[in-house]
Amino acid sequence: MSRFLSEKFADLEPYTPGEQPREGRYIKLNTNENPFPPHPSVTEAAEAESRKLQLYSDPECKALRAALAAETGLREEELMMTNGSDEALYFAFLAFCDRHTPAIFADVTYGFYPVYARITGTPYREIPLGEDFRLEPKDYYQAAATIFIANPNAPTGLALRPEEIAGILEQNPYTVAVIDEAYVDFGAESCLELIREYDNLLVVQTFSKSRSLAGGRLGFAAGNEELIRDLNAIRYSVNPYNVNRMTSAAGIACLKQEEYTRKNCRIIQENRAWTAARLKELGFEMTESRTNFLFARHPAVSGETLYKELKKRKILIRHLSGKRIADYNRITIGTREEMEKLIQTLEKIPGIG
Ligand code: PMP
Questions:
Q1: CB 83 near ligand 1, within 6 Å
Q2: Which DSSP helix (H) or strand (E) runs through 246?
Q3: Which of 110, 186, 220 has most ligand 1 atoms within 8 Å of its beta carbon, as the pocket-test mutant?
Q4: Ligand 1, closest atom to CA 85?
Q5: Listed residue (308, 305, 300, 309) closest to 348, CA to CA
Q6: SS3 of 59, please?
Q7: How far, in Å, is the centroid of ligand 1 from the Cα of 86?
Q8: CA 209 to centroid of ligand 1, rounded, Å
Q9: Mean pLDDT across the stretch 224-250?
Q10: Which CATH superfamily does the domain covering 7-37+259-346 fall into?
Q11: CA of 116 to the centre of ligand 1 (A)
């Protein structure tokens, strides 16, 4: 820390992104990326747009929002595009939380929520998940706080049904609930349709996972027109050109390839079922994942040991800190070949095979 850093950031504990190794051939199962590249037309669209990089991008993302509106059945005014969905979450903390309206979220959930709370000066409460990592909707009734729920949750992989989210929204008419649907396309149900019914619902989604655009950084917030107007006021006060030209073009092209996206999601779900079955045969225990990752532990090998043993053998998985989840690892679902390699490698690790 330099002697110039503002004292308000003296205790800042930044989010730790998953490793992105530059050298050595790793099988990367640690950051929930999609193993399939974007459709060729998406890459082509981004390349073509790169010839116009002397010009600013469209701060309204008009064409992209129109394409997304057509895809989701929402109106353009109900959508705001962001630089990854992380940015949408950050803007939501800025817009809808303060000293009087704290944030609440689960004790085991996306690690960025407490980081955003701290950097925005938002007081927050963590609500413990049940023993089996299930989220009890009633724990969020009359919360008197802005609610952040990853649905499906990360790293647990478990999902609530839209009716359960609706119950939470009904019980919190005076505050916003932000439903982070980063992984929804891998087998959970979206709440997008509920935004017409509940003016306190903000749904956040990303193009990073099901749409293979993690490196493009594209996400969006969907909600009642007024909520989106509030978020835009924040966005225009921070970075109006938050989505760059190439990403915007990639996003539009991507929305024309829904069949490709759906096919990849299907394959990932099949690979998840295959991997879960093999892991069970090896003695692993895991939650019922609705995402592109598995959250697993082995009774004979600690989470950290497993992570290290696999890393030595050039496979990266994610070991997250946190008392409740120290035994677990989060394993991204890759191609079938990658998952076969994972299983073969695990079989050779002492205590497992
Ligand atoms: N929400 C959750 C639950 C996530 O796991 C992630 C990915 N790390 C994000 C949001 C953010 O993803 P991105 O910024 O790439 O859209």
A1: no
A2: helix 245-255
A3: 110
A4: 16
A5: 309
A6: coil
A7: 6
A8: 8
A9: 98
A10: Aspartate Aminotransferase, domain 1 (3.90.1150.10)
A11: 13
Task: Write down the H helix ranges in 60-159.
Answer: 62-72, 84-96, 112-119
The answer to whether the CB of 21 falls within 8 A of the CB of 316 is yes
Question: What's the pLDDT tens digit per position in 60-111?
Answer: 999 999 999 999 999 999 999 999 999 999 999 999 999 999 999 999 999 9
Residue appearing with tokens 């990854």:
84
Please identify, by atom number, the ligand 1 atom nearest to the C-alpha of residue 87.
14
Q: Where are the domains of the chain?
A: 7-37+259-346, 40-257
Per DSSP, the residues of 188-207 read ----GGGGGT-TTEEEEEES
Rounded CA-CA distance 289/262 in Å is 18
The answer to whether the beta carbons of residues 310 and 317 sit under 8 Å apart is yes
- 263 confidence band (pLDDT: 50, 70, 90): very high
Pocket of ligand 1 contains residue 85 by CB under 6 Å: yes
Q: How far is CA 113 from CA 103, 106, 167, in A?
A: 9, 9, 22
Among protein residues, the one whose CA lies closest to atom 8 of ligand 1: 31
pLDDT one-digit tens code per residue, 299-317: 999 999 999 999 999 999 9
What does pTM read for this prediction? 0.97
The finding on whether 180 has its CB within 6 A of some atom of ligand 1 is yes
- Class of CATH domain 40-257: alpha beta
Which residue, by CA, sits nearest to atom 4 of ligand 1? Answer: 182
Question: How far, in Å, CA of 165 to CA of 340, rounded?
Answer: 37
Q: Which residues contact 209 (CB under 8 A, 6 or more apart)?
A: 32, 33, 34, 182, 183, 185, 186, 292
Contact (CB, 8 A) for 290 and 157: yes
Q: Residue 344 above 80 pLDDT? A: yes
Beta strands in 22-112 (DSSP E): 27-29, 79-82, 103-106
- The two structure tokens encoding residue 174: 């005076």
